[in-house]
Design goal:
Length: 158
Amino acid sequence: MEHLLRDVNDPSVSSLGFEARHKLQALKGLHDRLRYMATYLEDVLADRLPANNQILYNMQTVMNLLPNLNVEALVKSMLTKTNDMHLVIYLSALIRSVIALHDLVNNKIKYSDGASEKKDKKADKDKKGDADKKGDGKDGSKKDAAASSGQEESKSKD
């Protein structure tokens, strides 16, 4: 069951990261095999092991499959392809960071608008609450205002 679960792809994990990890493991494996071949050849040269023609033939085949880096056209094309790949990676990282910044700005705007609307609503409620406290309600406020102005007029007559 665990073996099957290992093969299930997790969508949250980037395929690029998985591929890079896979390439790194492959390069480590190649390095180990090349060291193993080098120790075998050293043992054959030191007469610790007998030479096996089939093994030597396979090693020669592997070495013949390697590209000839002395050809300038091949080196130039490899450098061009590498530069193109690095340009794509750089542009991808740049676009990803711009999108992240855009999302951050949109998020900031969204939550700052919400906060300002809440403050406006709270301020409106506070103003209404203060008016209600002063006037003791809509009807009461008019009566209280009339009563207080009547008291003031009677005091001024005295």
